Amino acid sequence: MASNGTIKCAAPMKATSNGVFQGDDPLDYALPLLILQICLVVVLTYFLRPLRQPRVVADIIVSVLALFFWRNNLGPSVLGRNEKYLITIFPERSLTVLDTVANLGLLFFLFLVGLEINPASLRRTGKAALSIALAGITLPFTLGIGTSFVFRATISTGVSQAPFLIFMGVALSITAFPVLVRILAELKLLTTDVGRMAMFAAAVNDVAAWVLLALAIALSGTGHSPLLAMWVFLCGSGFIILCIFVAPPVFKWMSQRCPEGQQVDEVYICATF
């Protein structure tokens, strides 16, 4: 951040270096630094295995111990309080690469999970999953609203009451769907009735939470037009309709064009992702 209030962009990082013997510092380049960051997370996660918790729980703990929550303005935590460590291992200019690789990994993981799920089995758990989702979002949402009244005179000073009520309710009731899927996959429960019901309920929970979040943004009306939230909601609804009614026939047509055992055309792979 510059002194006059303008934002100063970090210098871009080159992908690879010429090597240590050429006088380059590998940590000044994106690929070696990314490898070091991943190795650090994997090693710290290994030491948390005695907790006997799912791998994703260890990953979350490692992120609190080792990483710097720069994007969410949460400030440094534990190791991140060491400024030299922070600048060397997790510099600000490397966060874009790390975030991009993490989202690509999440994309491939959820795609592989989707391949193992039978949509017909999800329909069989519809009513029970809806009941579970309704119960799972109602109680935490109510507690979140009650908590917002407690914090009215502290952290919510100068904030509109209605948006703050909804934000607190959503914060306590939303389900991290990718985290739940990782836990179910690790416990080998994805293809069981319990796993399918949990995923369906979590999906309904997430949709409801994002709708409420869009409502909170519309009610706040600070910095953006209320129509922006409606536009985001309509785009999301259109995407869901596209995935349900348009994508399946297209994928069926592509599968018919790719004989079993033959090499798949790259165009179809790109279209799938």
TrEMBL record:
It is a multi-pass membrane protein. Its main location: membrane. InterPro entries: Cation/H_exchanger_TM, CPA2_transporter, Na+/solute_symporter_sf. Pfam families: Na_H_Exchanger. GO terms for cellular component: endomembrane system; membrane. Residues 41-271 form the Cation/H+ exchanger transmembrane domain. It comes from the Eukaryota. Keywords: Ion transport, Membrane, Potassium, Potassium transport, Transmembrane, Transmembrane helix, Transport. It is found in: Membrane. One of its GO terms (molecular function) is antiporter activity. One of its GO terms (biological process) is regulation of pH. The chain crosses the membrane at residues 29-49, 56-74, 94-117, 129-151, 163-185, 197-221, 227-247. Belongs to the monovalent cation:proton antiporter 2 (CPA2) transporter (TC 2.A.37) family. CHX (TC 2.A.37.4) subfamily. This is Cation/H+ exchanger transmembrane domain-containing protein.
